């Protein structure tokens, strides 16, 4: 449970936000420096209730096996797989990290958060079929994707995922790729398990406590101003001093980094994107589909709006989820305030925001169209994936809030980014994570990189321990092929 009365006095490390990033970093730090005093603050009354909540994300262990936005097409028609390889290797590091904790007996050997689910890409139309074939050929030339399968035969695709083909016109050109290495991840269960590990090592996890501001202390380190949001607090406002601060607060990270007044955050802004999913738990429908199937985004749609039909396993119960459908909210957190966006506007980021608005009219048009879409139009989108669907068997749920990164650009004024980015002070005493996908899936790699960046004086001494947690972090020229194979074979086994 949470620490309701954290001890007085300064701490070595404060982690803001009770999600997957803070949970991962808490476990890493306590393994590297078991004598450090670490505390996690979460503004809600429980952990993993924002982006790490399993129904606020698609649960895809992003390994670039099915997501087309990680394999863009070059002007000459070839496919660039560099980002796909990077994401795949970063997810491998997460699997190794979890497996390390299993081997130590700190996570259960029979995992409740990881389920084996094939990852597929499904496209329609001759042009898209040709692109998917080129993508398959490019990916399978790399050893990380050697096990991927391709088919443009509807009968084969039906054997992989019957709902995609049932009652579809035989005249329609279709194709799919499949990887049996895919997974579904319940990031809520994983976050809670990691924080249990952290607590067992002495980490204090404090819920219902909101960090309102972060200010640099004259003598070094940071002072955090806190507001107690519990129903019967002893003190409404308190403060705590820390040597190092990590801001893993999702959409709340931008404002807190701005409050720290570090020059590195100048020019950054956020673009909030809400969304909805359709979900069914009807046993006969769920039993007919076992895969995460990603399609191709509409023209002008953001990468995170790529349609996908996902098998989900949450708290051991299977379901299907389709989406996302774009929504609109100026909140930066699902459980945030209406003025979230307004509070982050600064003279230093206004030009970037206006430039992004100017250069992304197609995105704005897409979002407006999605907001105006009727239930019938949403059902048609689902039928493009599942021709036999009955919308009456599906419910609409609101997804988590995403805040995409806007950053200054000397040529264009500002650019809109669709990935994740770590922003850190020059002295490494504070850092935060901005952006969205593939964030959660690459948490272990991101936090290991953050530690090496923020603690350069300790990085060399930590390398052996970090590589023991995640063997794939070792430079390629220091590992043999046998080492790589052993690391893969030893990664955490998922439930079938």
Automatic annotation (TrEMBL):
GO molecular function: (S)-2-hydroxyglutarate dehydrogenase activity; L-malate dehydrogenase (quinone) activity
Pathway(s) served: Carbohydrate metabolism; tricarboxylic acid cycle; oxaloacetate from (S)-malate (quinone route): step 1/1
GO terms (BP aspect): tricarboxylic acid cycle
Enzyme class label: oxidoreductase
Keyword Oxidoreductase listed: yes
Requisite cofactors: FAD
InterPro entries in the cross-refs: FAD/NAD-bd_sf, MQO
Catalytic activity: (S)-malate + a quinone = a quinol + oxaloacetate
Documented EC number(s): 1.1.5.4
NCBIfam families (UniProt xref): mal_quin_oxido, PRK05257.2-1, PRK05257.3-2, PRK13339.1
HAMAP family, alphabetized: MQO
PANTHER family: L-2-HYDROXYGLUTARATE DEHYDROGENASE, MITOCHONDRIAL (PTHR43104:SF2)
Family per similarity comment: Belongs to the MQO family.
Protein name: Probable malate:quinone oxidoreductase
Record gene name: mqo
